[in-house]
Design brief:
Radius of gyration of chain A: 16 Å
Shape of chain A: globular
Number of domains of chain A: 1
Helix content of chain A: under 10%
Largest interface: A-B, 28 and 29 residues
Distance between the termini of chain A: 42 Å
Strand content of chain A: over 45%
Strand content of chain B: over 45%
Distance between the termini of chain B: 26 Å
Largest sheet of chain A: 10 strands, parallel
Order of helices and strands of chain A: EEEEEEEEEEH
Structural class of chain B: mainly beta
Number of strands of chain B: 10
Number of helices of chain A: 1
Number of helices of chain B: 0
Largest sheet of chain B: 10 strands, parallel
Structural class of chain A: mainly beta
Shape of chain B: globular
Oligomer: heterodimer
Radius of gyration of chain B: 16 Å
């Protein structure tokens, strides 16, 4: 799967916990509880089946088994597993949405790492002149 | 939370064996600003600014600023601001605390640094009899 340990340790928001505010840092985060606000991570965000996140999210890989609502940027991969629900606007370099998952909203491919089946949207106009 | 049937937590929490007290963990490089509520225990190794319920353990590398409210608090790290505990506050040897402490019970290990103000209000219930260590059935 997408989890690798390159961003170091994983912090945990356990099931009975509710956080309203901002979470940021150079870590992976596993959410089984509820988070409302802003999440900014250089690592990965994993939302467990009991997790509910309503936030503006910026993370490397995002894996959803629970519920996520909001504006989301996954710098690498955005994955919604069969039990997961996503509602909002998502920008990611790659998507994986499993059968059974719910995805409602807008998805955008980020151009930082173009996928094989998606050419960059606007080629540089200066490029032609040089050729 | 208590309304629903309690299931065994699926994901392993760092402290196992306390079925209804799941432990949350904020690592050294995580910073949390805001309100943390809902119960369970919390181990903070990074930055926390806010309010929380439950048991708080402030690890040696932790830096906590602002107003923190919890049931019991154990500090080994650095904390500045107002700390309110409904039951007790314990400052470990490595603790560096400045600000205001509010708790009915307070303990401090030799070596802990504390600058500020302490207010020890009476516990909400009647005071424990004599040197009551643990009145409930916990061994």
């Amino acid at each position: 799967m997408v989890k690798d340990a390159s961003a170091g340790s994983t912090s945990l928001v356990s099931r009975p916990v509710v956080i309203e505010g901002e979470i940021s840092g150079d870590e992976n985060l596993h959410v089984d509880g509820r988070v409302k606000g802003i999440i900014r991570l250089t690592g990965d965000l994993f939302v467990g089946a009991s997790g509910a996140v309503e936030a503006e999210i910026d993370a490397r890989n995002i894996v959803i088994q629970g519920t996520v609502t909001g504006k989301v940027l996954a710098r690498r991969q955005f994955e919604v597993q069969p039990s997961g629900r996503f509602n909002g606007e998502c920008t990611a370099a790659s998507y994986e949405i499993r059968e059974g998952a719910v995805f409602e909203g807008i998805s955008k491919m980020s151009s930082s790492r173009p996928q094989s089946d998606k050419a960059p949207l606007s080629p540089d106009p200066n490029l032609k002149k040089k050729l | 939370m208590g309304l629903f049937a309690k299931e065994k937590p699926r994901a392993a929490s760092p402290v196992a064996g306390r079925s209804d007290h799941e432990t949350s963990f904020f690592g050294t490089k995580l910073s949390v600003k805001g309100k943390v509520s809902g119960g369970g225990n919390l181990i903070v190794m990074g930055n926390l600014e806010g309010e929380l319920q439950g048991e708080l353990v402030v690890a040696p590398s932790a830096v906590i600023r602002g107003e923190v409210k919890a049931v019991t608090v154990t500090v080994s790290g650095s904390l500045s601001g107002t700390l309110t505990a409904r039951e007790k506050i314990h400052l470990e040897k490595s603790a560096v605390v400045s600000g205001r402490l509010h708790a009915p019970r307070l303990s401090m290990v030799d070596g802990a640094s504390f600058n500020g103000e302490i207010e020890m209000q009476k516990p909400p219930e009647s005071t424990p009899p004599l040197k009551g260590t643990s009145r409930n059935e916990a061994n």
